[in-house]
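Page 47, continued from p. 46.
Same chain as before, 193 aa.
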Amino acid sequence: MKNRIRLKYNAPVVLTFVLLCFAATLLGQIGSGFLTRLLFSTYRSAWLDPLAYLRLFTHVLGHADWSHFAGNAIYILLLGPMLEEKYGAKTLLYAMLATAFATGLLNALLFSNVALLGASGIVFSFILLSSFTSFSAGDIPLTAIVVAILYIGQEIVNGVFLQDNISNMAHIVGGVIGTVFGYCTNIRKKKAK
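Result:
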């Protein structure tokens, strides 16, 4: 019998997340943005509204348009499988949920007239988390420090000097969460050995 080539769902958390983003973006486009605003973006609203709590997590699924979706999906699909293999599906899912919750909550609390949507916070969490893949006991990779300095510095400069509808706060928070998860996960693994 000849070897057959099979498709493998190799990174279930990452692939499922990208598929959910695709579906949310499609629904948003079909509904002329109504569903995006209702379910897939977060903004300051009454805390008595049950959807306000849901949107703290689902805003990372919604995207303004196909270009916005593709830009985030490409990075997630490039970095995500490696991270899911290294850290495990559960840890990566926790990092994604923490990023979604933190960026959603901070946006709702700090910015009264800004609706936040998209997975760029998760992208930047993945970027910083990936810089810890070569972590060894007692060492902090120099690449992690350089990436963090360049990245956070750029986001601060962009946040101060550019008015471009990009949430630099979400990028910074995502990067910080990726750094914390990368460092803490690797420290915990080293102590377990």
